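Backbone-to-sequence.
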């Protein structure tokens, strides 16, 4: 019973620690992209994600080293921990929706998509979206480390599949937190409100579902994937990462320093009045090549389990398809409204939505 209870409350404690680190560790103040809905002022954010991640990993390591908490504690209590995070995610979602005035949609829609756009504390040190993504990413990383540690502790060596899978997920988390400021320019920040989708999504779904491939193999000794195959999976992951990171960075430079070339690519644009769209580089290949990159990374992570027949690892790339295809449709609608004829011109020049020559 004690294990169940401590397991249930483990994410609550960890989320409190991560929040304290976010609040008290030094951070950089960055001007974002989104404007305050009432004042029209561009929002500012305090970012320190990578530092919070490093300190959290250090704390995990020290507490394991000193024998306070087993290195694989998060694996041992995974189901109770999932239940605790699930409950906390629901509580947070109600608390972030109910106090705010209705936007005119049905209650269920508002609970899911949220009412408030970009909540921040009065001193702006905590931004709800940054906080949610930070908690999700750090907890995902702690799960990854703990699951990998379990494999090592049980078999005295880590299987190459667990090693590769945890390395790819670690890369994914570090990449996200290293480029935190670039993500201020993404759909979640300018188009989404905070409700169950973002709240429960980041507190529960992100740290537990994104590690699903490791859930499948952390307790298995084999397989040891041959080195050449590990390299192929890693290259597939990296090619996805290049598409996704490359497109995000090209757009980020274009929005912040419009003339600046990215990777030697000079921006080519189409314009109408004060509206401008990029039409070359990553943005000339398809209108959402970054989504293809994300899906390829998901496929590489599923393959890295070494068991192509473990069906639940495949839920991960399938989830990306289910998330990103409707998102592309929504985003295209939004852009069509915002950019009008210019968007039509762009869609004629760059015909494909996500996968060049196919979709
Ligand atoms: P995009 O980065 O594609 O951003 C879309 C926005 O970019 C549009 O609304 C528009 O905004 C602007 N835009 C579109 N076309 C052009 C163009 N040709 N030139 C200039 N600006 C353009 O999508 P997201 O924000 O959805 O995704 C950001 C990243 O996050 C992606 O790499 C995505 O894969 C990743 N992601 C990762 C997830 C994960 O769980 N790992 C989940 C979801 C996304 P504006 O009106 O400002 O011009």
């Amino acid at each position: 019973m004690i294990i169940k209870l401590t397991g249930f409350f483990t994410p609550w404690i960890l989320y409190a620690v991560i929040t304290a680190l976010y609040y008290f560790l030094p951070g950089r103040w960055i001007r974002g992209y989104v404007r305050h809905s009432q004042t029209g002022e561009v929002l500012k954010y305090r970012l320190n994600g990578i530092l919070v991640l490093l300190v959290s990993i250090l704390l995990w390591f020290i507490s394991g080293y000193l024998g306070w908490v087993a290195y694989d504690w998060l694996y041992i209590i995974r189901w109770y921990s999932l239940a605790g995070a699930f409950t906390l995610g629901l509580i947070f979602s109600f608390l972030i929706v109910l106090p705010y005035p209705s936007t005119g949609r049905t209650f269920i829609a508002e609970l899911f998509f949220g009412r408030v756009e970009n909540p921040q504390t009065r001193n702006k040190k905590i931004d709800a979206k940054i906080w949610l993504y930070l908690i999700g990413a750090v907890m995902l990383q702690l799960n990854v480390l703990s699951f990998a540690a379990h494999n090592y502790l049980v078999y005295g060596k880590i299987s190459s599949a667990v090693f590769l899978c945890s390395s790819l997920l670690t890369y994914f988390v570090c990449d996200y937190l290293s480029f935190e400021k670039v993500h201020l320019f993404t759909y979640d920040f300018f188009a989404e409100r905070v409700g169950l989708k973002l709240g429960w999504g980041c507190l529960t779904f992100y740290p537990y579902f994104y590690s699903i491939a490791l859930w499948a193999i952390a307790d298995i000794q084999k397989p040891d994937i041959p080195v050449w195959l590990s390299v192929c999976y890693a290259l597939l992951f990296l090619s996805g990462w290049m598409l996704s990171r490359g497109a995000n960075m090209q757009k980020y430079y274009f929005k912040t320093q419009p003339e600046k070339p990215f990777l030697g690519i000079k921006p080519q644009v189409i314009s109408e009045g004060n509206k401008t769209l990029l039409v070359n580089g990553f943005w000339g290949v398809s209108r959402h090549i970054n989504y293809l990159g994300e899906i390829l990374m998901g496929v590489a992570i599923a393959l890295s389990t070494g068991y192509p027949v473990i069906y639940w690892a495949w839920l991960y790339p399938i989830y990306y398809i289910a998330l990103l295809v409707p998102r592309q449709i929504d985003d295209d609608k939004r852009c069509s409204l915002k950019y009008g004829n210019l968007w039509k011109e762009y869609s004629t020049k760059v015909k494909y939505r996500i996968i060049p020559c196919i979709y």
